[in-house]
Amino acid sequence: MDLSATKNCHCLAARRRAREITRLYDEKLRTHGLQSTQFSVLAALALKGPTPLGELADLLGLERTTLTRSANRLEDEGWVTDAEADDARKRCLKLTPDGRKKVESAYPAWKKAQDEVDEQMDGLATE
């Protein structure tokens, strides 16, 4: 069996590219004390309002446990807090006023990363 074709694995290439993009966003957001996932949580809550943790995890494409760890760190910083939920068994999160300030102040850094990735993708499309 010749396994040489696995050198060009699309799955591996996609994962590598995803890590490169994540590093770019993390680099731009670092000066704001945020990681890309944390920014995404804050932005989603700013757009959606109070949201059950499971629903937010689905929206962001995150594992619930990963989101829980992120949410706990954001809560420690005072950027999110628990919100009242219809179902007491479900944790619901909401953005605090400080959280809104944080996501708004970090937005220009996020936008720079977004624009860089857009340019890279446009370059790939024209090749």
Shape: globular
Q: From the 3D coordinates, which CATH architecture of the domain at 35-113 would you assign?
A: Orthogonal Bundle
The CATH superfamily name of the domain at 35-113 is: Winged helix-like DNA-binding domain superfamily/Winged helix DNA-binding domain
Helix share of residues?
55-70%
Low-confidence sequence ranges:
none
Please provide the count of β strands.
Answer: 3
Distance between the termini: 33 Å
Largest sheet: number of strands, sense, barrel closure: 3 strands, antiparallel
CATH fold label of the domain at 35-113: Arc Repressor Mutant, subunit A
Question: Which strand order do you get reading across the main beta sheet?
Answer: 1-3-2
Beta-strand residue percentage = 5-15%
CATH class of the domain at 35-113: Mainly Alpha
Structural descriptors:
127 residues; mainly alpha; Arc Repressor Mutant, subunit A; three-stranded antiparallel β-sheet; 8% strand
Task: Write a structural description.
This protein is mostly helical. It has a domain of 79 residues: Arc Repressor Mutant, subunit A (Orthogonal Bundle). The protein is built from five helices and three strands; from the N terminus they run ααβααββα. It has a three-stranded antiparallel β-sheet with strand order 1-3-2. Helix 1 packs across helix 5 and helix 2 packs across helix 5.
In short:
The chain has 127 residues and is mostly helical. Helices cover 66% and strands 8% of the residues.
SSE map:
Layout (H helix, E strand, L loop, with lengths): L9 H20 L6 H13 L2 E2 H8 L3 H13 L3 E4 L8 E4 L1 H30 L1
Helix pairs in contact: 1-5, 2-5
